[in-house]
């Protein structure tokens, strides 16, 4: 029969052995210090995310740069080119019939994106610059009209695409855009641009391209 001291010694040895075994075994879900298996996986995930972000930024940069180059890099010409492209999309929409519901829905989304990007550039750069140059009345009027643009977009997006009211609404909307663009291109922007220094003009182009890239 084992003495009390012998029993205590056997228990102590058994406990130490279990602790040693625990320290050498790791769960597959262990991410603690010394877990070298997780490091490559985490590194790969981080690298993949960085590549994705970089590729997305490059796509935005190239798209905005190409648009800018087509317009000669001038902020007012970029906006004029966007006006022209958007009006062309309206014409495609007006050429549809009530059976083209899928095409109509797709064109409305395309127009929404184009106008949203265009308005963002103007509201973040051009209209503030107009106000700084004491052209507040025109800036406020033009920005006020952007509210009607959003209302028309809301109506078209939530209207049945084969509704009898669809094309008449598109025509009204197109007329608003055309008149808005004409005021900017023929009155407000030429007068404003003529008063800018070359440095100011270049800065507006740079800032507007930066904002446009955010929306691509």
Short précis:
With 216 residues, this protein is an all-alpha fold. The chain is built from 7 helices and no strands.
Number of helices: 7
Q: How many β strands by DSSP?
A: 0
The largest pleated sheet is described as:
none
Rg over C-alpha atoms, rounded to the nearest angstrom: 32 Å
**Taking all residues together, what is the mean pLDDT?**
80
User: DSSP strand (E) fraction?
Assistant: under 5%
Would you give an account of this structure?
The chain is 81% helix and 0% strand. It has helices spanning 4-24, 38-70, 75-94, 101-132, 136-158, 166-194, 198-215. The longest helix has 33 residues, at 38-70. The protein is elongated. The termini are far apart. Residues 18-36 and 52-62 have low confidence and may be disordered.
Key descriptive features of the protein:
216 residues; mainly alpha
């Amino acid at each position: 029969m084992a003495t009390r001291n012998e029993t205590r010694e056997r228990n102590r040895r058994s406990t130490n052995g279990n602790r040693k075994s625990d320290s050498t075994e790791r769960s597959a879900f262990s991410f603690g210090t010394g877990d070298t298996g997780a490091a490559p996986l985490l590194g790969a995930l981080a690298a993949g995310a960085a590549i994705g972000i970089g590729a997305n930024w490059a796509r935005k940069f190239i798209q905005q740069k190409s648009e800018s180059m087509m317009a000669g890099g001038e902020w007012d010409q970029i906006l004029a080119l966007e006006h022209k492209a958007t009006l062309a999309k309206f014409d495609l929409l007006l050429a549809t019939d009530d059976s083209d519901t899928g095409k109509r829905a797709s064109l409305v989304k395309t127009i929404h994106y184009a106008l949203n990007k265009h308005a963002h550039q103007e509201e973040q750069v051009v209209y503030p610059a107009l106000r700084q140059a004491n052209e507040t009345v025109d800036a406020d009027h033009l920005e006020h009209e952007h509210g009607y643009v959003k209302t028309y977009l809301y109506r078209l997006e939530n209207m049945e695409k084969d509704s009898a009211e669809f094309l008449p609404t598109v025509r009204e909307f197109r007329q608003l855009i055309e008149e808005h663009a004409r005021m900017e291109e023929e009155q407000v922007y030429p007068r404003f641009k003529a008063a800018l220094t070359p440095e100011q003009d270049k800065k507006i182009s740079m800032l507007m391209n930066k904002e446009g890239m955010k929306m691509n």
